[in-house]
Design goal:
The chain is α+β, with helices and mostly antiparallel strands. It is built from 5 helices and 3 strands, in the order H-E-E-E-H-H-H-H. The protein binds FE2/S2 (inorganic) cluster (2 copies). One of its GO terms (molecular function) is iron ion binding.
């Protein structure tokens, strides 16, 4: 395992005080919800984004039922994507998350969960913007 001393203080804080835990209104047209699971461990992550009319992410919340690394990954990405465009958010890679959190190889799938959750939330938001006929 990674010695705690190697963690940057800021990063350790994502484990101890996760940011942006909570829910956004799923029925809001400007909210995209992503719900993903990790097949290898059964952990589940829900990540939601709220987008303004300029296509900027103005809010993000998560609920993660999983290990500490998954919770820290979701906390970190909700901070990263706030203020970003949809394209910028979709370009976040799990390797960026893993690097920032100094995740060991066995915990890489935890950061993958966060990347997948962003992608799923973006896809849900985009789907909601397509006008429904009739
Ligand atoms: Fe069970 Fe991640 S393996 S919490
Ligand atoms: Fe499965 Fe972290 S999400 S061990």
């Amino acid at each position: 395992s990674v010695p705690v001393a190697l963690y940057h203080e800021n990063v350790l804080d994502h484990y101890e005080n996760p940011r942006n835990v909570g829910n956004l209104d799923k029925k809001d047209k400007n909210v995209g919800t992503g719900l993903v699971g990790a097949p290898s461990c059964g952990d589940v992550m829900k990540l939601q984004i709220k987008v303004d009319e300029d296509g900027k992410i103005i809010d993000a919340k998560f609920k993660t039922f999983g290990c500490g690394s998954a919770i820290a990954s979701s906390s970190l990405v909700t901070e990263w994507i706030k203020g970003k465009s949809l394209d910028q958010a979709s370009s976040i890679k799990n390797t960026d998350i893993a690097k920032e959190l100094c995740l060991p190889p066995v915990k890489l799938h935890c950061s993958m969960l966060a990347e997948d959750a962003i992608k799923a939330a973006l896809a849900d938001y985009k789907k909601k913007q397509i006008p429904k006929d009739g």
